[in-house]
Structures are given as structure tokens and as C-alpha cells.
Specification:
The complex is a heterodimer. Chain A is α/β, with parallel strands linked by helices. Chain A has six helices and 15 strands. Chain B is α+β, with helices and mostly antiparallel strands. A six-stranded antiparallel beta sheet of chain B has the order 2-1-6-5-4-3, sandwiched between helices. In chain B, helix 2 crosses helix 5. Chain B is globular and about 40 Å long. The chains are: A alpha/beta, B alpha+beta.
Chain lengths: 307, 162
């Protein structure tokens, strides 16, 4: 699997020169499967530039939405394939007893917030509740489960052959509990994340920022690395950067997370941080310890800008 | 293509039960959490104070285990005086009604504490229904009808029980 970050920011886009290295676009991750098919995780503003990079000949596009907060859907209205008649787009997301996925997304893609309505999009678009059980998509096995965040929110586990990635961009598993001591069956997201080759996880706050944000649905870096340690993630990508965190601050946050993980007995080199346009090639690590990974099992290479 | 779904083995509790446990941990009203089969998954510190034993010493229990231990008895006329007419038929317990009928239920009864004997309580159960739209469990909140006892379990100010 190849994982490319098109937006790693949380809450709201954060452009500006002090954000250049990590980027200002909100959540969007492209996963290229061994079959050659593409999965798109979330449709934050990063999906706009991803849309320019996708081949117009791509037969179908699958988008997996974790939830419908604006930072995860804001780019949909500016996703170029939406405006091509030949595009087939399937959008999966959390179900709700209140309204269909299409109706809920249409609250954003409709007047007065939008100049176009969902029904006016020329592409062939369908909106599907993510099944409550595992299903196959593009040759990969997908599993979606509700996780701790504000409002109905899914996390995803994607298995392609022997390789597994877990995506939990908005997640507060330590809310009201101590992750270090909690039995694993009581940890939100455990089943999705156990023994994954790559865990992409919320890490919005430093330890001193978290007390003022308890219950907001996001994690401190200490909780993120504790979660990674408990689930035995081989490698972790810190994600969903706070819009106030500049490049220099995120450098410090990354180091603090590595130190916290080392204090738990993990390999600090297995804790990385998401940078817009960076690319990770994920392969299975047969003998990796539950809390660490050999450096050559996952290689990160800079990606050349495509838009 | 979207293919036929498969059901994977689930080890982790449903999110709504995880959040319910977190809530129970944070409140000082005695409360139980059971799964869809009525098995006891958790009770909080206030419940532990009332029952005379912390949950951590017991762990998960099947319905027949915890009913044998805590001996819920009917309060004959329901006036809270703990008439002790006999063991409660598990089918009439509020939590059974909540799980079976998917609605809240309430009663008064007597339960047994390992350290302080029998207590009259009022118990209210409500089903927990997640995105699957089926009850994955129930919360049972109970109140000691003895005012002094109620104050003790909700404030944490207990007499030393010898």
C-alpha cells in the first residue's frame, strides 16, 4: 500500500508561511492499493489538490468519510472529479437515524453555503452507509467502527494482502479513562488498530493543551502514543494538527511524542508526523515487536508536487 | 465492487458500552452496566460502596452469578420497605425489561451487601441502543431508600465496616 497525505490539518484550514512544511489543508489521505485502485480517506480541503492529480480515466473513486465535520468534507465541493460527467464516485460514511448520508452532506452542498446542489453535480455519485461488518473494496478489506469523538464518527481498518493501515484522525480514546491501565476490550478503536503496520492517529494537543480541551474529541500526544503502544501499532503517523500549531511547534510536538513513546519502551523512530504531500510505502513487517518497527519496513519518500 | 459483508470476530465492546462505562466511572450515583445478555460488565465505586465489594474484585459475571451474590428480593407492595417476599424473578427485573422490551423500567427491591447486609433500593434501568439499533446493553441506576445510606454511597463518606 502507498499512503499519501494531502491534508493533515484539523478543525480548519491553516494556510500561511509558518505552516508551509506541514501544510494547511484539512484531512485527506490517498491510499493506493496493490490492485492499483485508490481509496480516499476523508474529503477535507486536501482533496481539492488530490483531485487534480487523479487520472481522468480512473474508472471509479471511493471516498471513505470518518464523519461529517466540516474539516472532513469541506473539499468535496471543490473536488474536480465531481464536475466530470464521466466520473463515478462512491462516498461511504457513518449512518444516522436522523437522515441519510446524502441528506446530511447536502446541508453543506446546498444554498446558501454552496452555489451548487448535490443533484446538480454532473458525476455519477452515490452515498452509502458504511457497512457494520467487513466489506471488500478495490481488492482491500475494509472495516469501519464507531469511535470516541463528538457526533457519529467512524474509524477505518484497511487490509490489503498482508498489510494493514488504520485511520483514526479524530479520536479521544482516553476520555474518562486511563489508556495505560484499561482492559483492551474497553479501549475505543482497539479492534481497528491492533497490530496494524501503520496507524494514522489524532494527535492534536500537547500535554499542557489537553486539559482545556477534554471532551472535544481529540487526543494529546501522550494518549496517542499510549494508544499506539497498547494496540501494538508497528508505525504511527501523528495526524490532525491543530490549526494554531506552526511548523516549529509541530517539530517540538513530534519530538515530545517520540520521547513519550520511548518512555513506554517503544522505538521512537516508529513515531512519525504527517506532512502534506509526503508519501509512505507500507509493507508488512513480519518480525516487528508490538511497539516498534524496523526502520526499513516503512520507507518515507518525499513526493513531488502534482498540482 | 462492494461484496457480500462478513462478520469479523469482535473482541472490543461496542462504543456505546465503552462510553457508558466512562459515564458510570464519573458519577457518584450507584450504577450497573450489563451487556445484552444481562451479564454484569461493570459497576461504579458508589455501587461498590453499597454492595460492599468493589467491581475490581469480582469482574464480569453472568446473570445467575450476580443475582446469587446480590440476592435481589422483591419488595412486596413496592413501598420501599423491603418486604422480602422472595427472590426476584429475573424476568421482572428492570434490566431484563429494558433489554427485552427496549424501554426504561423501574422498581423497588432489596439487595444484599457482602458487608452491610440488606438494603432497600429503587432501581431504574434503561436500554443502550447504538447505531446497530439493537440494545447492546443496559444501565441500571439505583438509589438506596435509606437516606443515610444514600448519602454515604454518593458522597463517599462511609463508616468503617468491620
Amino acid at each position: 500500500m502507498r499512503v499519501k497525505i494531502w491534508g493533515a490539518r484539523g478543525s480548519v484550514p491553516a494556510p500561511g508561511p509558518e505552516m508551509n512544511r506541514y501544510g494547511g489543508n484539512t484531512s485527506c489521505v490517498e491510499i493506493t492499493l496493490s490492485s492499483g485502485e485508490t481509496l480516499i480517506l476523508d474529503a477535507g480541503t486536501g482533496i481539492r489538490t488530490l483531485g487534480f492529480a487523479l487520472s481522468p480515466e480512473m474508472p471509479r473513486i471511493n471516498i471513505l468519510l470518518t464523519h461529517l465535520h466540516l474539516d472532513h468534507i469541506q473539499g468535496l465541493m471543490f473536488f474536480p472529479p465531481c464536475f466530470r460527467a464521466e466520473s463515478t464516485i462512491r462516498i461511504f460514511g457513518p449512518s444516522s437515524p436522523e437522515a441519510s448520508l446524502e441528506q446530511r452532506i447536502a446541508r453543506y452542498i446546498s444554498a446558501p453555503l454552496s452555489p451548487v446542489e448535490v443533484r446538480e453535480l454532473p458525476c455519477d455519485v452515490s452515498f452509502l452507509d458504511a457497512p457494520a461488518t467487513e466489506w471488500e473494496l478495490g481488492g482491500a478489506t475494509i472495516r469501519a467502527e464507531a469511535v470516541t469523538h463528538r457526533g457519529p464518527t467512524l474509524g477505518y481498518r484497511i487490509t490489503d494482502g498482508d498489510t494493514t493501515v488504520c485511520y483514526l484522525p479524530d479520536h479521544e480514546p482516553a476520555l474518562g479513562s486511563s489508556l495505560a491501565t484499561l482492559a483492551r476490550e474497553w479501549i475505543s478503536g482497539y479492534d481497528l488498530a491492533h497490530d496494524v503496520d501503520l496507524l494514522i492517529h489524532d494527535s492534536q494537543y500537547m500535554a499542557d493543551e489537553y486539559p482545556a480541551h477534554v471532551g472535544w474529541g481529540h487526543s494529546s500526544i501522550e494518549d496517542t502514543v499510549t494508544f499506539a503502544h497498547r494496540v501494538g501499532a508497528k508505525r504511527t503517523l501523528l495526524f490532525h494538527h491543530d490549526p494554531l500549531h506552526t511548523d516549529g511547534f509541530l517539530d517540538d510536538l513530534h519530538l515530545a511524542a517520540q520521547d513519550a513513546y520511548a518512555a513506554l519502551g517503544g522505538d521512537p523512530e516508529s513515531i512519525d508526523i504527517a506532512r502534506e504531500r509526503s508519501e509512505v510505502v507500507v509493507s508488512p513487517s513480519p518480525a516487528a515487536a508490538s511497539s516498534g518497527l524496523s526502520a526499513d519496513a516503512v520507507a518515507e519518500v518525499p513526493a513531488s508536487p502534482t498540482a | 465492487m462492494v461484496e457480500e459483508p462478513r462478520t469479523p470476530p469482535i473482541a472490543q465492546k461496542p462504543l456505546e458500552l465503552i462510553l457508558a462505562r466512562n459515564l458510570l466511572t464519573s458519577i457518584t450515583t450507584p450504577a450497573f452496566l450489563v451487556d445484552r445478555t444481562g451479564a454484569l460488565l461493570f459497576y461504579n465505586e458508589a455501587a461498590g460502596a453499597l454492595l460492599g465489594i468493589p467491581f475490581e474484585e469480582l469482574g464480569r459475571m453472568e446473570p445467575e452469578q450476580w443475582t446469587r451474590l446480590f440476592r435481589p428480593f422483591t419488595d412486596g407492595d413496592g413501598d420501599g420497605d423491603g418486604g422480602g417476599e422472595g427472590p426476584v424473578d429475573i424476568e421482572t427485573l428492570p434490566l431484563t425489561i429494558a433489554l427485552r422490551d427496549g424501554r426504561p423500567a423501574h422498581t423497588t427491591l432489596t439487595i444484599h451487601s457482602a458487608k452491610t447486609g440488606d438494603h432497600e433500593i429503587a432501581a431504574s434501568a434503561m436500554p443502550i441502543v447504538g447505531q446497530s439499533e439493537e440494545a447492546s446493553g443496559a444501565i441500571v441506576i439505583f438509589w438506596p431508600l435509606d437516606e443515610d445510606r444514600a448519602r454515604e454511597v454518593t458522597t463517599g463518606r462511609h463508616e468503617v465496616v468491620k
